[in-house]
Amino acid sequence: AQTVTQSQPEMSVQEAETVTLSCTYDTSESDYYLFWYKQPPSRQMILVIRQEAYKQQNATENRFSVNFQKAAKSFSLKISDSQLGDAAMYFCASRHRSQGVRFGAGTRLTVKP
Amino acid sequence: GAGVSQSPSNKVTEKGKDVELRCDPISGHTALYWYRQSLGQGLEFLIYFQGNSAPDKSGLPSDRFSAERTGGSVSTLTIQRTQQEDSAVYLCASRIPGTGGPNEKLFFGSGTQLSVL
């Protein structure tokens, strides 16, 4: 079964600085999708960014970008110009054909003013 | 509906009782997922439905847990003989048909907070 590992339970960043959250995954398939979701204290899950495995180009969404290393099965999230509103739990996730979407254990991001 | 609806929003039960949690996905969403989230923890995958069938139910923690989906819409997660360790938020999510692009997004409900006393 697919697994997603986030090795950083907590991370901290100064406002306006850049932070990178790590994620690795395990799969034997070539066709899959990767995601980063954000969960603020409201508990509502918000999609931050997604990456199709067949695309070599790293996805970007405004201040959010990923470093997708397919051979290494690594999918890190970079947040640039961090803002106070970025403080939340961040979950890495993967979806494979005919399987449920699996999430990592999460990284709690604190943004210091 | 406009979003994924889960009911009840809160459920308090006594140990040993059975509970049913309901998820009403967005109309037309064929894929439906159940997750369990303990306080401060990640999302534990439980089961995935495509239509009325469950191609992946490998996350159900024990035979006390079961889920069904009828009419390709509403899903019910049933926990029999509840235990204190079942206390958690149970989240449901749905996804529109197809793959790739904007289809690749889960829409989450607000969850059911289950407390087993």
Question: Would you mind describing this structure in some detail?
Answer:
- Chain A is 0% helix and 53% strand.
- With 113 residues, chain A is mainly beta.
- Chain A has a single domain (3-112), classed as Immunoglobulins (Immunoglobulin-like), CATH 2.60.40.10.
- In chain A, the strands form 3 sheets. In chain A, strands 2, 5, 6, 10, 11 and 12 form a 6-stranded mixed beta sheet that branches. In chain A, strands 3-9-8-7 form a 4-stranded antiparallel beta sheet, with no helix packed on it.
- In chain A, strand 8 (64-69) and strand 9 form a beta hairpin.
- The N and C termini of chain A lie far apart (41 Å).
- The model of chain A has no long low-confidence stretch (mean pLDDT 94).
- In chain B, strands 2, 4, 5, 6, 9, 10 and 11 form a 7-stranded mixed beta sheet that branches.
- Chain B has one domain: Sandwich (Immunoglobulin-like).
- Chain B has 117 residues and is mostly beta strands.
- Chain B has strands at 5-7, 10-13, 19-24, 31-37, 44-50, 53-56, 65-69, 75-79, 88-95, 107-108, 112-116.
- Chain B is built from no helices and 11 strands.
Order of helices and strands of chain B: EEEEEEEEEEE
CATH C-level name of chain B: Mainly Beta
How much beta of chain A, percentage-wise?
A: over 45%
Any idea what the radius of gyration of chain B is? 14 Å
Q: Which segments of chain A are poorly predicted (pLDDT under 50) over 5 or more consecutive residues?
A: none
Shape of chain B: globular
* CATH first level of chain A: Mainly Beta
Task: Write down the domain tally of chain B.
Answer: 1
Helix amount of chain B? under 10%
- The helix/strand class of chain A is mainly beta
The SSE string of chain A, one letter per element, is EEEEEEEEEEEE
| Fourth-level CATH superfamily of chain A | Immunoglobulins
Report the sheet with the most strands of chain B, covering strand number, pairing sense and barrel closure.
Answer: 7 strands, mixed
Task: Find the structural class of chain B using helix and strand composition.
Answer: mainly beta
